[in-house]
Amino acid sequence: MERIYIGMGSNLADPAEQLRSAVEALGQLPQTTLVGVSAFYQSDSLLPGQPRYTNAVAALDSSLSPIQLLDALQAIENDQGRERLERWGPRTLDLDILLFGDRLIDEPRLKVPHYQIQERAFVLYPLAELAPADLHLPDGRTLADLLAACPFIGLERLPHP
Ligand code: ROI
């Protein structure tokens, strides 16, 4: 079993409902236990001209391999109507493997840790609700280090449903 953190995002077709459905699907993955889910946060898109995003983070314990998990996450995205029209385009659901135990993965389909964790407040603050502050990335940086360098700007923490 390894502890895995999943970043979730949506900016189409009732984003909060998309995230709730995704959480339910994550809870049904084989060889996997859903350990926790952060609050939901709204923020403007990093790219102009898209609707606002709702983001959250989920923690899993799983004995799936990274690629098995990636396949399962992409199946959930597809089930929820994800269309890959353009890179960085608006989407009904995005599920990213942020951290997978303390593994460093550099494969064509999968890079872990997710390469923009450190600069994205909408990833770091929900992650901090679930992970200990002394959580280490494989390069030794702690979550506390990353948070200290990433101000809580433009994020709106939504009340729990
Ligand atoms: N912006 C926000 N706020 N949240 C996201 O999940 C997100 N995802 C993206 C881009 C378009 C870069 N912007 C985002 O892929």
From TrEMBL:
EC number: 2.7.6.3
Keywords: ATP-binding, Folate biosynthesis, Kinase, Nucleotide-binding, Transferase
UniProt pathway: Cofactor biosynthesis; tetrahydrofolate biosynthesis; 2-amino-4-hydroxy-6-hydroxymethyl-7,8-dihydropteridine diphosphate from 7,8-dihydroneopterin triphosphate: step 4/4
GO MF entries: 2-amino-4-hydroxy-6-hydroxymethyldihydropteridine diphosphokinase activity
Top EC class for this record: transferase
Domain 7,8-dihydro-6-hydroxymethylpterin-pyrophosphokinase positions: 87-98
Keyword Nucleotide-binding: yes
CDD domains (UniProt xref): HPPK (cd00483)
SUPFAM superfamilies, per the entry: 6-hydroxymethyl-7,8-dihydropterin pyrophosphokinase, HPPK (SSF55083)
Transmembrane segments: none
Xref: PANTHER family: 2-AMINO-4-HYDROXY-6-HYDROXYMETHYLDIHYDROPTERIDINE PYROPHOSPHOKINASE
Task performed by this protein: Catalyzes the transfer of pyrophosphate from adenosine triphosphate (ATP) to 6-hydroxymethyl-7,8-dihydropterin, an enzymatic step in folate biosynthesis pathway.
Protein family (similarity comment): Belongs to the HPPK family.
Stated name of the protein: 2-amino-4-hydroxy-6-hydroxymethyldihydropteridine pyrophosphokinase
Provenance organism: Pseudomonas rustica
